[in-house]
Amino acid sequence: SGFLSFHSEETQEEEDMMVEVPDLVGKTENEARELTNELHLGLQMMGEENSNQEKGKISSQDIPKSTMVKA
């Protein structure tokens, strides 16, 4: 069995608004997409990895939660 790994990507907007990266670990892909869309952040699946998370749940993210990024 595999696990999903995601990271957030900044998107280009006219305004340089700073937002806090949400904690996506343990969320489903749909939950993560809803959260990142609300914040105008991109989301990209990076593949599967072994972890203690339930199958289909995000096990890690490249940008740590609470990091401030441009939206």
Characterize the biggest β-sheet: 3 strands, mixed
Name the helix and strand elements from N-terminus to C-terminus, one letter apiece.
Answer: EEHEEE
Strand content: 35-45%
Task: Describe the oligomeric state of these chains in a short phrase.
Answer: single chain
Please list the strands of the largest sheet in the order they lie side by side.
Answer: 3-1-4
Instruction: State the share of residues found in helices, binned by percent.
Output: 10-25%
What is the CA-atom radius of gyration, in angstroms? 12 Å
Strand segment count: 5
Q: How many helical stretches?
A: 1
Q: Tell me the distance between the termini.
A: 34 Å
Overall pLDDT metric? 82
Structural class by SSE content:
alpha+beta
Note the overall shape: elongated
Helix and strand arrangement:
Blueprint: E1 4-10, E2 18-20, H1 29-38, E3 41-48, E4 58-61, E5 68-70
Please provide a written account of the structure.
The chain has 1 helix and 5 strands, in the order E-E-H-E-E-E. It is an alpha+beta fold. Strands 3-1-4 form a 3-stranded mixed beta sheet, covered by helices on one side. The longest helix has 10 residues.
